[in-house]
Design goal:
Blueprint: H1 9-13, H2 15-30, H3 32-52, H4 54-113
Helix pairs in contact: 3-4
Region (Disordered): 1-119
Protein name: YtxH domain-containing protein
Biased composition (Low complexity): 91-103
């Protein structure tokens, strides 16, 4: 009635009781007083060890990254070992290939010395 641009009174009065009823239903359902007081108590209980254990956490937190670094070191060592093994295998393979080529050349030289044609 105070503002002329508002909706008719009949439309505004109908939602108001339903909204109040919903609020009345919600308030006991949520039980804000008991739930608000209980979580505050539990939060305070939870926060106190966290704040007192902050020094403990500082001691434990570096331990976790150190563990992660150790894991990374182990992984890097494994990859390093694998790389060195791969290098050794490659060196062995190249050596055997070179030996095979040398023996093939020797046999070709022997064959050509006997007067036969090269393949």
């Amino acid at each position: 009635a105070t503002r002329p641009h508002e909706r008719p009174v009949t439309a505004s009065t109908i939602p108001k009781p339903s909204a109040e009823k919903m609020q009345e239903v919600k308030r006991p359902a949520t039980a804000t007083t008991s739930k608000a007081s209980e979580p505050v108590k539990t939060n305070v209980v939870k926060e106190r060890p966290l704040s007192s254990g902050a020094s403990d956490k500082k001691a434990t937190q570096p331990a976790q990254p150190v563990h992660r670094q150790n894991v990374e070191k182990v992984v890097s060592q494994e990859t390093h070992q694998n790389d060195t093994k791969d290098r050794r295998i490659k060196v062995q393979q190249t050596q055997t290939v070179q030996k095979n080529q040398q023996t093939i050349e020797k046999t070709r030289n022997l064959v050509t010395k006997k007067g036969q044609k090269k393949k």
